[in-house]
Amino acid sequence: MSEMLFAVGILGVVITIVAWLIIINMQRRSSEQTRAEHQAWERAQEARLQQWKTQQERQFIDFKQELTTQIQQIQKQVQQTRDEWKTWEEKDAARSEELKQAYQALMTRERMEFELVRLPRVEDIPLPAKEASPNGNTSFPWQPANFQNARLSERDLSSRYLRHADLRDAQLTNAKLFMTDLSWANLAGADLSGADLSAANLAHADLRGAKLTRANLLVADLNHAVLIGTNLRQARNLSVEQLQSAIVDSTTQFDADLPLQTSAIQPKDDKDGSTNQSEPLDETTLSALSEVKGSDKSSLHS
Question: 119-302 — its CATH code?
C-alpha cells in the first residue's frame, strides 16, 4: 500500500514537474515571441524613423534648393532694379544736363537777342558819345554789348553802334556790318569771313587772330586797328592806304598781289604766296598798340 502511495506520489511529482516544464516552455516561447514582436516593432519604428528622416532631409534639400532659387531670383530682381535705377539716374542726369544746356543756350540766345534789340543805330548816338575817350566813358548812357562766342552769322547789323563791344571768338560769317561802328571793339579770334564791312568804323579795333577772308572792306576805317595774326587773304576792296593806318606785323596774312608801295609795310613773299610784314613796328605804332591793349582791359572791366 505504501509502495503504491509512493509510486503515486512520484507519479504526481513527475506530472507536476512535466506540467511546470510545459508551462515554463510555454512562457519562454511566449516571451521569445513577445521579444521577437518587440524587436520587429523596434525595427519597424527604426525603419519608419529612418524613412521619416530621409523624407525630412529630402524635403529640407528641396526647400533649401527652392529657397536658394527664390533668393537668386530676388537678388536678380534687386540687381535688375538697381541697374534700371542706375540707368534711370544716368538718363535723368543726361536729361537734366540736356535741359540745363538747353536752358543755358536759350538764355544765351535770349540775352543775345536782347542785346541785339537794344543796340542803337549810329545815327541815334549823340556826337559827343561818338567822340568818347578810349576807355569807353561817355556822356551817353550806354554799356558796351557783350557778344563773346556769339553766333551772328548772316545777321544784319548794319549801322549799329558796337563801340567797345566784346565780340571775341564771335561767328560773323557773311554778316552785314555796313557802316557799323566797331571802333575799339574786341574782335580777337572772330570769324568775319565774307562779312560786309564796307564803310564800317574799325578804328582801334582789336582784330588779333581774326579771320576776314573774302570780307568786303570797302572804305572801312582801319585806323590803328590791330591786325596782328589777322587773316586778310582774298579780302575784297582792301587798299594799301587802309593797311598804312593799321597795326600789322609779320603774322598778318594778306594776298601777294596787294600793291604795297610804302615804307610802313614791307612785303615778303611766303611759300604759300602770301605777303607779310617783316620789319619791326615803329614807336608810333607800338604806342598805338599799347593804347589799344589798355582800352581793351578797361572795356572788359566795365
Answer: 2.160.20.80
Residue 205 · residue 187 · CB < 8 Å: yes
Q: Report d(CA 225, CA 289) in Å as an integer.
A: 9
**Distance (Å, whole) CA 248 – CA 276:** 9
Give dist(CA 165, CA 182) in Å, integer. Answer: 7
Q: φ, ψ for residue 146 (rounded to 5)?
A: -120, 105
138 vs 47: CA distance, rounded Å: 113
Burial class (CB in 10 A: 0-12, 13-18, 19+), 213: middle
- Residue 2 cell numbers, joined: 505504501
DSSP collapsed to 3 states, 138-184 = CCCCCCCCECCCCECCCCECCCEECCCCECCCCECCCCECCCCECCC
Higher confidence at residue 263 or residue 59? 59
Cα–chain center distance at 66: 46
First to last CA, the chain: 166
Residue 117 CA: distances (Å) to CA of 114, 160, 164, 299: 5, 10, 17, 21
* Each residue's pLDDT tens digit, 231-268: 999 999 998 889 889 999 999 998 887 755 333 444 33
